[in-house]
Amino acid sequence: MASTPPIPPTTPLLLLGVVGIFGPVNGYQIRRELLSWQVDKWANVNPGSIYHALGKLSDSGDLTRREVSDGSREVSVYEITESGRVRLHSMLEHAMIGVDVFDRSAFQAAFNLLPLLGDDHATTLLKQRLVTLQEVMREYTAATEPDANPYAPPHAMEGARLWLRLAQAEADWLTDVIADVQNGTLSFLENADWTPPPDDPGHQMTVDRTDYRRILQGEPGQDASSPRISTSE
């Protein structure tokens, strides 16, 4: 059998990745950002479970959580820790290389987070995934030959061939993506040639991140409308 690393759970991978990209960031912004990726559809992430998962990641030391007064309300603001960043990068690599032809949600999550790694590292992982996927496909092809399992119902064998064709489609796509990165038409760098629309919530998230960083570092210069660190902490 093709050697593939254990595939990490999708929810903590997504949460660590979003906080790693946008942090410091509050829980509502994390939830809104992930739902804009439609993770409730392709990653089976229950929107109601996001806050619970953030709490678990904080308890494990992968995230820090601070209470900040934002106008008339208090919000929990999250940042990724050094150990959380180490765990995130390990999860990213395993999700990129680990192949499960029946479930690509962890890979899809990792692919969305590749700007955290940059073009060179991302390309290396994409190439490794392609090699592993091709090994899995060779094994799967042999298992779906007409004489491989003469007792299997014909419709079941056709269902297995569907998964094989989907794997081939992914292999073709990976080949194209790798070529696009290498010839410069696609980049995973954070400063790649892309600008969000003016009404994108990410603009406000960037403003809030600047305020949160200043507050969490104890810097002066807040006005009355700026978030403040909670005095109850």
Descriptive notes:
This protein is α+β, with helices and mostly antiparallel strands and 233 residues long. The protein folds into 2 domains: 8-115 and 203-221, Winged helix-like DNA-binding domain superfamily/Winged helix DNA-binding domain (Arc Repressor Mutant, subunit A, Orthogonal Bundle); 118-187. It has helices at 10-22, 27-36, 39-42, 50-59, 82-97, 105-112, 119-143, 154-182, 201-216; strands spanning 25-26, 63-70, 73-80, 228-229. The chain has a 4-stranded antiparallel sheet with strand order 1-3-2-4. A hairpin with a 2-residue loop joins strand 2 and strand 3. Helix 7 (119-143) packs antiparallel against helix 8. The longest helix has 29 residues, at 154-182. The termini are far apart.
Secondary-structure topology with pairs:
Layout: H1 10-22, E1 25-26, H2 27-36, H3 39-42, H4 50-59, E2 63-70, E3 73-80, H5 82-97, H6 105-112, H7 119-143, H8 154-182, H9 201-216, E4 228-229
Antiparallel strand pairs: 1-3, 2-3, 2-4
